[in-house]
Design a protein that fits this description.
The protein has 300 residues and is an alpha/beta fold. It has one domain: Acetylglutamate kinase-like (Carbamate kinase), CATH 3.40.1160.10. The relative contact order is 0.16. Bound molecules: adenosine-5'-diphosphate and magnesium ion (MG). Pfam families: AA_kinase.
């Protein structure tokens, strides 16, 4: 697949009409449905990819589909931590979050990154509204108890990393119904109003479940889930995922991503895809394409 955008400015009006007409069955199928989009990786930092992403989201909204964006921000958090002389550390794909790191996570995600995305979507003609899990009392969380994948008797203390207790999506629904595009930062709050850093893939997956989304698209910085030989796996069953995690083929940030994807698929989200966010218009390609793109996660 070519990664360079083609110049189609020479398209005749009749071609343009034909292209749009061909999209009609897909638009009809998804009209009024919710799509949760996890926005992460390179698609978030490359200006050309950013613009294409914003266009896709706005286009979905304008044809009557309800996109909900959940964003990550690993690289941006890493940059600020470095400037402050702190080293990021990960356990099983999750960022170890001490109190100081939590402050940085909140500044970066709920401040800079969220507002950049809101601005990007607005510039493309949409009306985006930024939210954290605290807004509308949306994401209740508690400290995540992380059990070692290889030795269940070992528990890792990774600080203020959150486990989702519940999601109340009413604020998202209210915004959706009123033409807005929600942009959610993955921060939850606890019983004492303390903040939790939650993996964005996990938030996107759970939000897709509670919203009963038609689709969950996870944009990442790789073609999809790869096997040991580095070949793309177009489809994955829960059993195959277990094998790939157990033998270490799936590691790092792909662990929470695939776990979230699988949860969503098993909980009734009809289509769950991990797709290559480095491809311009990855979202439209997936929604309007009939060729397999990235990795589809099956519920059984
Ligand atoms: P993001 O959450 O922004 O999409 P992450 O770095 O958290 O990015 O997760 C994606 C990364 O997971 C990939 O870039 C890759 O390095 C890693 N990874 C680990 N195992 C696999 C695998 N089997 N297939 C694809 N990517 C994998
Ligand atoms: Mg990640």
């Amino acid at each position: 697949m070519s990664h360079t955008p083609r110049d189609l400015s020479h398209l005749q009006p009749s071609d343009r009409a034909e292209v749009l007409a061909q999209a009609l069955p897909y638009i009809r199928r998804y009209h009024g449905k919710t799509m949760v989009i996890k926005y992460g990786g390179n698609a978030m930092t490359d200006p050309e990819l950013q613009a294409a992403f914003a266009e896709d989201v706005v286009l979905l909204k304008l044809v009557g589909i309800n996109p909900v964006v959940v964003h990550g921000g690993g690289p941006q958090i890493e940059t600020l931590l470095k400037r402050l002389g702190k080293e990021g550390r990960f356990v099983q794909g999750m960022r170890v979050t001490d109190a100081e790191t939590m402050e940085v996570v909140e500044w970066v995600l709920a401040g800079e990154v969220q507002q950049d995305i809101v601005g990007l979507i607005n510039r493309a003609g949409g009306k985006a509204v930024g939210l954290t899990g605290r807004d509308g009392a949306m994401i209740r969380a508690r400290k995540l108890r992380m059990v070692d994948l290889n030795d269940p008797s070992v528990e890792h203390d990774i600080g203020q990393v959150g486990d989702i207790v519940s999601i109340d999506p009413s604020v998202v629904r209210a915004l959706q119904d009123d033409q807005f595009i929600p942009v959610v930062s993955p921060i939850g709050f606890g019983e004492r109003n303390e903040s939790y850093n939650i993996n964005a893939d996990v938030v996107a997956a759970k939000l897709a479940t509670v919203l009963q989304a038609e689709k969950l698209l996870m944009l990442t910085n790789i073609r999809g889930v790869l096997d040991k030989q580095g070949q793309l796996l177009p489809e994955l069953t829960p059993r195959r995922v277990d094998e790939l995690v157990a033998d270490g083929t799936i590691s790092g940030g792909m662990i929470p991503k695939i776990a979230g994807a699988l949860d969503a698929a098993k909980s009734g989200v009809k289509a769950v895809h991990i797709i290559d966010g480095r491809v311009p218009h990855a979202i439209l390609l997936e929604v309007l394409g009939d060729q397999p793109f990235g990795t589809m996660i099956r519920s059984h």
